Amino acid sequence: MIVITECFWMGLRHVFGDKPVPSILDFLMVHRQWDYPLSAIAEATGVSYRTLQAAVPLLVKRGMLKETRAVAKAKMYAINFDSPAVRKLHAFAVECDYEFGKREAKEGRVARAVLQPVRA
After folding, report:
1. What is the tally of structural domains in the chain?
2. What is the distance between the alpha carbons of residues 111 and 82, in angstroms, rounded to a whole number?
3. Per-residue pLDDT tens listing for the chain (120 residues)
4. Looking at the domain assignment, is residue 16 inside a domain?
């Protein structure tokens, strides 16, 4: 299993700040090829394990995340791209990233910016 220890900011956190749900969704959207246990999500996002224990089941119930498998006693979770809401949220996050990157480049705070949005 690959564990990402650094979570790069994505669109939802640019808009909603460093809150638990945007952090969880951003991390899992960026790393959508893999599934993760709560402990890895906590480490990568900085969201406490206790908060994840409350938030992740709600996101699963709403269809935004899916439980993919179990490894020993750990349940693994991934973003649910089969959900139309998740696809729209991803498009919104990408557009926010695009706007944020343009603003940062215009203000000279980034050395290099890609100014073409990527469509999923």
Report:
1. 1
2. 36
3. 443 334 345 678 777 877 899 999 999 998 989 999 999 999 999 999 999 999 999 999 999 999 999 999 999 999 999 999 999 999 998 888 888 878 877 887 754 444 445 454
4. yes
How far is residue 8's CA from residue 96's CA, in Å, rounded to a whole number? 14
User: Is residue 22 one of the residues assigned to a domain?
Assistant: yes
Supply the pTM of this predicted model: 0.77
Q: Tell me the C-alpha to C-alpha distance, in Å, between residue 26 and each of 14, 17, 87.
A: 10, 11, 12
φ/ψ of 68, rounded to 5, equals -95, -35
DSSP 24-90: HHHHHHHTTTS-EEHHHHHHHH---HHHHHHHHHHHHHTTSEEEEEEETTEEEEEE-TTSHHHHHHH
In a 3-state reduction of DSSP, which class is residue 105? helix
Domain for residue 72, yes or no? yes
Give the range of the structural domain holding residue 25, as residue numbers without chain letter.
11-106
